[in-house]
Amino acid sequence: MRIRPATAAELPALRAIERAAGSPYREFGMAEIADDEPPALDALERYRRAGRAWVAVAPDDDAHPLAYLIAEPVDGALHIEQVSVQPDFAHRRIGRALLAHAADRAHEEGLTHLTLTTFTEVPWNAPYYARLGFRALGEAELTPGLRKIRATEAEHGLDRWPRVCMRRP
Questions:
Q1: What CATH number has the domain bearing residue 22?
Q2: Cα angle at 46 between 42 and 47, to 5 degrees?
Q3: What are residue 70's DSSP bridge partners?
Q4: What is the pLDDT of residue 63?
Q5: Domain count, the chain
Q6: 0.85 exceeded by the pTM?
Q7: Facing residues of 110 across strands?
């Protein structure tokens, strides 16, 4: 597998990956998450132009992304906004590789850690990230930027299910 910057032409494929990756949320009574629209093309383009949209591709097929990650700096950290893997390629450490790539980019930019927000009771969310070295942040540890992200998530109804902010050095 190879990780590289996303191209403008691939942005619709990233939306398709996220739609497919959302499907398993139905098993947890989270149909609204499964049906949620991925980021709009213009939003994905902003991440791409900023150099913070990466795709994972097979070594023998550079033209078809298997997964993607978008991120942005938030309060001295690189905040993982979204990481999604095509379900047919799940459990192959692709998400882990994308997170490692993001950590390398964060280090190059002088950012001290990675952050993300996620669901606590979905196995491929908080429990997965904990296995990768992320730890849940208490309310007092949330930076102003993370508080703003959580408030926006609440406005979109994501707090209907337990969520947490996590950080990894």
A1: 3.40.630.30
A2: 120
A3: 53, 82
A4: 85
A5: 1
A6: yes
A7: none
